[in-house]
Amino acid sequence: MSSRVNHFKTIPALAKTLADASMALGKISLDKKLKHLVDIRASQLNHCAFCLDMHVKEAKMHGERELRLYHVAIWRESPLFSAKEKAALALTEALTRIGDNGVSEALYNELREHFSEVEVSELTFTIAVINAWNRLQILSQMAPGSMDSAYGLDRAELH
Prior knowledge:
This is Carboxymuconolactone decarboxylase family protein. The chain is mainly alpha-helical.
């Protein structure tokens, strides 16, 4: 198989801008564990192996319980997630798989029960950025785990 495009080499300024956005998201008020759940769920929905691998490892390194990581795919049925986490995961699905009706009033009202306006915006940016990364990685087809040592993800001890 021929190698695919490397966005960091072809358009480094744009790739850096997206990387900078990701770094900025690391400084928002949104709980890091919740952000990892969002990144994992969007990556599952988008079938992005590289990002899913990376975000599961990051979540584990930041103290997420393994059983909860296994349950992200079944979050609706799982008793392991709070109502707030479920609202965030529902928004992740709604914005990752945008349907004809967008985000329903019911979902928006549910979000507002658990999140401030600022937090809803932070959550929306988090979802937008992971979806952008998923699309770039799906096209480039970087191998899952190929950047572990560069990103320090080998410390997750998930092999």
